[in-house]
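Hey Z.,

So I finally got round to the iron/sulfur cluster thing we talked about over coffee. Here's the setup:
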Amino acid sequence: RREGAGLSPAIWEKVKEHPCYSEQAHHHFARMHVAVAPGCNIQCNYCNRKFDCANESRPGVVSERLTPEQAVEKVRAVAARLPQLSVVGIAGPGDSLHNAPRTLKTLELLRAEVPDLTLCLSTNGLALPDHVDALKALDVHHVTITLNALDPEIGAEIYPWIAHDHRRWRGVEAARILLERQMEGLERAVAAGILVKINSVMIPGINDGHLEEVNRVVREKGAFLHNVMPLISDPAHGTHFGLTGQRGPTPVEVQTLRDSLGNDARLMRHCRQCRADAVGMLGEDGCGDGGGADATSPT
Ligand code: SF4
Ligand code: SF4
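And the result:
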């Protein structure tokens, strides 16, 4: 399968040197996540707050929490010893945009002090519509939104609550608001010329039969890649799904779904689901087994 198949030449030109999007580039360029965003504005049933945001990060070790200034210092130090460093992303450990002041300050400092690096972030999307203009002004290259369902009834099985507009919402209403905000964020980011990738966590019996529809709609709305990731549900991680016995998909089930989406589905096939503080070449920092998420990468 040709690298960049399904992407327009203009988009391929933009991402071909990004280690996460080009299998070729990931042998030559490095990426780094800085963990500056501790809190979250939603609850996912696959989340364990002791670990990094499961939407883009692997479980196992709590990220070091950095201030924006510490994050920039760390990026400078890594760039000095790792000339292949080309991308810096903010992936949590909570939601990058729930922590917008810290995240935007970090991006602003990075843009000023290490202007050659490509910047990206991941988010659950709830706060995205409020920050698209700021992200565009900081020349953020791409944004990842984790979007697991288009149907609020399905969403309600994944998200027990969200915090929005100074109150907590639950059930279908919460899932409906989250979906509306994710769609608005997707549309506004695409309109602003920011590349948008969608992550979906495949949860057997809950959203697995629905992800084909998610793929179709997010492509129609202009997402340039869709990354389907397997739920990792382990009681030891203490997630709601882990405790209720919700299983993750088998590798065959994940492959079958990816195959059913076809060659034109703009699927991302080598995301390593890195931790929120991952540093280095993909696959060389302990995040390279291509496994699933804690039940779920920023960039
Ligand atoms: Fe928030 Fe990420 Fe946890 Fe979901 S998985 S509750 S978005 S920190
Ligand atoms: Fe790239 Fe996936 Fe790792 Fe993010 S989590 S840096 S998209 S490989």
